[in-house]
Amino acid sequence: ASRFNALKADTHWQQVWDESQTFAARDDSPKPRSYVLEMFPYPSGKIHMGHVRNYTMGDVLARFRRMTGHEVLHPMGWDAFGMPAENAAMEKKVHPGEWTRQNIAAMKAQLKRLGFALDWSRELATCDPSYYGHEQSLFLDFYRAGLVYRKESAVNWDPVDMTVLANEQVIDGRGWRSGALVEKRKLSQWFLRITRFADELLAGLGSLEHWPDKVRLMQENWIGKSQGLQFRFALSDGESVEVFTTRPDTIFGASFVAVAADHPIAQALASRDPAAAAFIERCKQGGTTAAELETQEKLGYDTGLTAAHPLGAGELPVYIANFVLMEYGTGAVFGVPAHDQRDFEFASKYALPIRRVVADGERSDAAFDGTEAYTGPGHLVNSHFLDGLAVEEAKRIVIERAEREGWGQGSTVYRLRDWGVSRQRYWGTPIPIIHCSACGEVPVPREQLPVALPEDVSFDVPGNPLERHPSWKHVHCPQCGGAALRDTDTLDTFADSSWYFIRFASQPEDRPFDRAQAERWLPVGQYIGGVEHAILHLLYARFWTRALRHVGLIDLAEPFTGLFTQGMVTHETYKAADGRWLAPEEIGGGVELATGAPVMVGRVEKMSKSKKNTVDPAPIVDQYGADAVRWFMLSDSPPERDLEWSENGIEGAWRFVQRLWRLFDALGEGEAGKGADAALDRKLHQTIAGVAADVEALSFNKAVAKLYELVNAIEKAAPSASRDAAVRTLVQLVAPMVPHIAEEAWALLGGQGLVADAPWPKVEAALLVEDEVIVAIQVNGKLRDTLTLPKGLAREDVEAAALANDKVARLLEGRAPRKVIVVPDRLVNVVA
Ligand code: ANZ
Ligand code: ZN
């Protein structure tokens, strides 16, 4: 008997797969197609455990689909633009391109080392001009179709990194990387008109039945569709202000009107009233996200203006308020303190009337003495012609009346904003527009694409290297030939990841993709990745796909029909007495090696550099082999849950691989078994069917558990032809999970070609039927015991078995039963 030499087997079979292009997808294949994709990695330098788990899952599905007769597209590439490369350039004085390419090479070797069934012939890196040049052409298609525009807008400006930050990059008012206090600045920015598709993107969620509900809900909330009424209040200075409300029913409860700090009315007032200007400045200091506005203290500035109630219910004071967002609705609201919590807090602070207009039954007087707003259902009170109506009914009536009388109209607003794609960075896709003082914005002519990044840039001072490059931005206007300037913004890297899955399907040199080819492969049937991308990446990719359809480049609505979001890989944390995080290699025997002080074991948390609880997969793969690592990634936890990395776990996986090898090796060397083992045959076929169903459902841990059971059963079984057949079939069953040992065994046992190309074993349906059943034993209708009996046993025999049961006999106390009811294969009820 020999031991399984993982290192040797890994290297050998990886080379065989590579050389024979085993996993190259054939575009012209007549087989049914299956597109399996994991979110492509950012080339940060090393593969981490989260990648290993993610890619192992996708790999098992891809390999399994091949075995079930599909032509599988399972590609890999690099989301290669982004800030870390520039940070490395600043810190380590290495060019972002070089840093990125080195990381890609290292990580590619690591992925190969894990034996993933990837079609490397389709590899792409988004930082390659052969990729981003096509992205520029798509940007221009969108531009011509009116899906791209430029406007002045307030941005989060990081004064240290000298860049615009996305809202998510602002944490507690500070830049996520620099920690500097973020400022608001006005800049001319490029936007993609995602709001044009807001309704479609929302409706489309309904068709995504193979997406997790929570992700669909997160997208729905992000799009945030609200229906209500939009109308104008006439102001005391002769002007007017338009408001948006989702609660037109509460109109008689209005006690003030409030506008955002950057609303034109507020701006106009600020120009002549220094106190108003000071108040507006103060508002800008606070955060601007919806969540921050919710929790901040509500502040207002009385403009001295009044607004006439549209239904004649008096004059309302007009405030500038810090909880009103300029970017939502119309940037102005009417406040109903009794029925909106923000308004309630505001009215309490500024002693404004709080009038009840919705009653939940108990109290209906106008005086509201609650401690918080009432936002529940009920009927209208103190509201003239609305009195007695239910909320929904009242909303409808007010909208109808506003439209009839011409002072307002029903309207729908979305929380979704257009996608600001301008970044003042070097390492991204240059925006292919030229600014000419005579012609304005001029698209770069198609034949001049790609607009390539200049290589000779410096990072010794902060700011945008494209902006300060001596020559790059100076060009001739393509239209008039005069001196003009390139746009020096680059695209948000989310643009790069919004269509890479289409480029994988088809990679012509002269176009972003071939339409027919792309339509043959897409949509991606199974997409797998982290839940951190549940909103932005997935929404942007859905938008981009719709935009492509809009400009006539592809006939596809949804890019990913199946989505799976996997859990994280976690690990114990360790802390020194003074609270410093310690890495596992800094401790030994319960003490910190450097100081000898005792170590505290902290919580199990997501692996992260900051907590020093990461485990580098590379040395583990070298030590235990790729198969053991893959097996561990699949076992223990359901894939959507967190998986705790442990030494024991990987060792257990390694032992299992060795157990497999003992079975394979013994069959290779031993004598052929004789005779049938019906129980083992049944177990085998149940496992074939069960593992297939589990893998299709991505319940990898269940598949693993079934394979453990089968291996246990085989080990216990006496020699037989059935046992030999079970071991032979086991090779195919484990092949998607532990492909190296499977190839080795396949070759050893005389299999044809590669097991990677072998079919999934056939299930004999007859063997799936259980031959034993569990029968409930009742006495007077009460469950007393259960019996395991042969399936289809005759009534008399079932009755006899029940009466012979100890518990039944005891309850009968020697008397004969009055009646015995038998439901075959299910239940016996003994009536005493
Ligand atoms: C009067 C009212 C009475 C409101 C009431 C609510 C409850 P959603 O559902 O999130 O769309 N609002 C409108 N525009 C706003 C803005 N730019 N900044 C801050 N708040 C704004 O919320 C819509 C409601 O949020 C609107 O309905 C408006 O307040 C407020 F008992 O109008 B409501
Ligand atoms: Zn010009």
- Tally of helical runs: 26
Sheet with the most strands?
A: 7 strands, mixed
Q: Report the count of strand segments.
A: 37
User: Averaged pLDDT, please?
Assistant: 94
Low-pLDDT ranges? none
Structural class, by secondary structure, is alpha+beta
Strand content: 15-25%
Domain Leucyl-tRNA synthetase editing: 220-402
Organism: Sphingomonas citri
Subcellular location: Cytoplasm
Keywords: Aminoacyl-tRNA synthetase, ATP-binding, Cytoplasm, Ligase, Nucleotide-binding, Protein biosynthesis
Structure characterization notes:
The chain has 832 residues and is α+β, with helices and mostly antiparallel strands. Helix content is 36%, strand content 22%. Strands 10, 11, 12, 13, 14, 15 and 18 form a 7-stranded mixed sheet that branches. Helix 21 runs parallel beside helix 23 and helix 22 packs antiparallel against helix 23. The longest helix has 23 residues, at 647-669. The two termini are 62 Å apart. The mean pLDDT is 94. Zinc ion is lined by residues 436, 438-439, 477, 479-480, 482, 484.
Features:
single chain, 832 residues, alpha+beta, 7-stranded mixed sheet, 4-stranded parallel sheet, 37 strands, globular, binds ligand ANZ, binds zinc ion
Concise structural overview:
It is built from 26 helices and 37 strands.
